[in-house]
Amino acid sequence: xxxxxxxxxxxxxxxxxxDCLTVVRRGARLFSxxxxxxxxxxxxGLAFAGVLPLDQAFAASRCGLVATGERLYLxxxxxxxxxxYRERAWTPLAWEQARGLAVAGRExxxxxxxxxxxxxxxxxxDVAAMAVELLALPPAERAAAAGARSTRALDPAALIxxxxxxxxxxxxxxxxxxxxxxxxxxxxxxxxxxxxxxASLIGTLLAGVAALWAGTAAASAWVARxxxxxxxxxxxxxxxxxxxSLPSAVRxxxxxxxxxxxxCDFLAAAAVLLPxxxxxxxxxxxxxxxxCAASGGDSAGWRRFWEERRGQLDVLLSHLEVSSEEVMAxxxxxxxxxxxxxPFCDSEFPPGHALCTRCGTPLLTHSAATAA
Length: 372
Description:
The protein has helices at residues 2-20, 121-135, 139-153, 156-193, 200-229, 239-244, 246-250, 252-256, 266-273, 276-296, 300-312, 314-320, 324-328, and strands at residues 21-24, 28-32, 40-42, 45-48, 57-61, 66-67, 71-74, 91-94, 102-104, 107-109, 115-117, 340-342, 347-349, 364-365.
């Protein structure tokens, strides 16, 4: 049995690393931790969604559907720089065009052929339900109802409570996954590669691995049903993969929490999950972008949406215990001659520039106190 295991274990290790990899698609963001360290934000591309069973990984969309009293707006395909704050970069959609929308996995399909792809299937179902709910309201009530939903999505206290409830529920799954990881990748290699006696331990250890796998699958199914019942997750937590794939079973708790952020605003997730130093630049971009959008939009509904959103962000400022003035202060100069700073593209400009040459938006001004 040992020669066969010598061939299989490297393959299992490769499959485990493949299971750790995830493709972050356009418009999505991944909050993930590695080796128990703080969560970090990953953008588009190939990224590790946690390595150890005790790590965490949560997906969210950077830009979602914007709902005003007059129309819906689909986010730009390339939400780079200041694009998310320009009305002309978004695709307007009359409310009547939202009739007959359908959800297919992570995608919302509208009757006219337009599509909106979100980070998770649970998020797609949430956004579709919101659109249907608002469509059923009288036009005069839609803006207020959309604002109320936006306020709830930005509530950090609700996300903190949701995360705490999730972690309490998945603790048994995490413990089983860690035991499975230790049995496969820490206990087995000395026995099969170094020939440590007694050889009978191999059979005993393999029986233990099988029992742990079965226990992890059963615990994951029970926890997933509980989480769905409490509204914490929207899908099945990749139960099929956990039951059929040993590497997926080791990382079962990460699979269960992938869509935990459905119904939460990306900025709220950043304020709660990321270190303060990583969340503040994102909040600076949003505050500056909201001000630009509120003053530069073509329609009254668009401007009103961003004016209200600017006020709604105060709850995140309070959570981070920081004032808007502190957030809007540019970071320390990288070059002594810089007088202006663009939070969208992270560029600095010498005196005489009022607008960013790349984004076309007003610059934040360096004060004398920010000199390097």
